[in-house]
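sry for the spam today, last one i promise. C-alpha cells for design, 265 residues
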C-alpha cells in the first residue's frame, strides 16, 4: 500500500481519495489528510476512516506522495510551509489549476520530483480526464506513480507542460460546457411540453450514449453526425438553426476565453 498525504481535503481530494481506496492503491491507514477547515477534516475522517493530521507538515512528512489539493491562490503559502519537511524520495503532485511545475519547484528544495495534473469534475464519479505534465526532477518512478493514481479516476494523458492551459480550456472547463448544453436542452424540451424529469433523463442518456459512440466506434464526430442526419429531415433542420445561431463560433470563443483566463492565474 502506498502512503499518500492530501494537503487540502476539499472536493477534489475527496474524489481522488475515494477512488484510490476503492482501487486498493492505498488503504485508510496509509492515507492522511490535512485542511485548515477542521469541520471538513472531521467529516472526511468519519466518512472514510482515514487519518487527519494537525498540520500540513505532519501530514506530508512520512508520505511517499504529497498531493496538493488547495486552491491555486493558496499554493505558494502551502508550499512555503512544507518546504522544510519535503525530501527527494517523495513525489509532489499538484492539481492546482494554472500553477506550473517551475513555480512549485522554485518553492521547494532542489531535486524533488513534481508532477502537475489537471483532472476534471467527473473525477467525482471516477470518470475523469486527467492531463499530466512532469517537472525537471520527475523520473520514471514518480511519473508511474502519478499515472497509477489518476488512472484510478479515469483517462490519463501526458502532455508537454507548455500546452496545459490549452488542454485545461477543453477538458478542465469542458464539463461546464456540457452541463450548460444539457440544461439548455432540458429547457427546450420543457418548452415543447415534455415533463422536466423525463426530459432530463432523455438528455442525460443521450449525452452518455453519444460519448460512448465516440469512444467505442472511434469514428470522427462529423461521421457520427452524418449517420443521424437524413436528407431533408428534422436533424438537418435543427443543425441549420444551430449554425445560424453561431454555435461553432460560440465554442471557439468560449475555449479561447477559458485559455486567456488560465494564463492570468
Ligand atoms: N473542482 C474541480 O472540478 C477541479 C478540477 C481540476 C482541478 N481542480 C483543482 O483542485 C484544487 C482543489 O479544488 P477543490 O474544488 O477541491 O477545492 P476546495 O473544495 O475548495 O478544497 C480546497 C480545500 O483546501 C483547504 N485549504 C485552504 N487553505 C489551506 C491550507 N493553507 N492548508 C490546508 N488546506 C487548506 C480549503 O479550506 P477552506 O475552504 O476553509 O479554504 C478546502 O477545504 C484547486 O487547485 C483546483 O484548481 C479542481
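last one done:
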Amino acid at each position: 500500500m502506498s502512503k499518500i498525504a492530501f494537503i487540502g481535503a476539499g472536493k477534489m481530494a475527496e474524489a481522488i481519495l475515494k477512488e484510490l481506496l476503492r482501487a486498493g492503491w492505498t488503504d485508510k491507514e496509509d492515507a492522511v489528510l490535512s485542511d485548515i477547515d477542521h469541520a471538513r477534516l472531521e467529516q472526511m475522517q468519519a466518512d472514510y476512516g482515514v487519518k487527519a493530521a494537525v498540520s500540513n507538515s505532519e501530514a506530508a512528512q512520512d508520505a511517499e506522495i504529497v498531493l496538493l489539493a488547495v486552491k491555486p491562490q493558496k499554493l505558494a503559502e502551502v508550499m512555503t510551509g512544507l518546504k522544510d519537511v519535503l525530501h527527494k524520495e517523495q513525489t509532489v503532485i499538484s492539481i492546482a489549476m494554472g500553477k506550473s511545475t517551475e513555480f512549485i519547484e522554485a518553492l521547494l528544495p532542489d531535486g524533488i520530483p513534481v508532477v502537475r495534473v489537471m483532472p476534471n469534475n467527473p473525477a467525482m464519479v471516477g470518470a475523469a480526464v486527467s492531463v499530466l505534465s512532469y517537472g525537471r526532477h520527475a523520473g520514471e518512478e514518480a511519473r508511474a506513480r502519478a499515472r497509477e493514481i489518476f488512472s484510478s479516476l479515469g483517462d490519463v494523458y501526458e502532455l508537454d507542460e507548455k500546452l496545459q492551459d490549452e488542454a485545461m480550456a477543453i477538458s478542465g472547463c469542458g464539463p461546464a460546457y456540457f452541463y450548460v448544453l444539457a440544461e439548455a436542452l432540458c429547457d427546450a424540451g420543457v418548452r415543447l411540453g415534455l415533463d422536466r424529469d423525463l426530459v432530463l433523463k432523455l438528455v442525460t442518456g443521450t449525452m452518455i450514449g453519444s460519448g460512448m459512440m465516440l469512444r467505442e466506434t472511434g469514428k470522427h464526430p462529423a461521421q457520427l453526425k452524418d449517420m443521424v442526419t437524413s436528407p431533408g429531415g428534422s436533424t438537418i433542420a435543427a443543425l441549420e438553426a444551430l449554425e445560424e445561431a453561431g454555435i461553432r463560433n460560440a465554442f471557439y470563443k468560449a475555449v479561447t476565453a477559458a485559455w486567456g483566463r488560465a494564463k492570468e492565474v
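The first strand starts at residue 4 and ends at 7. ok im logging off now
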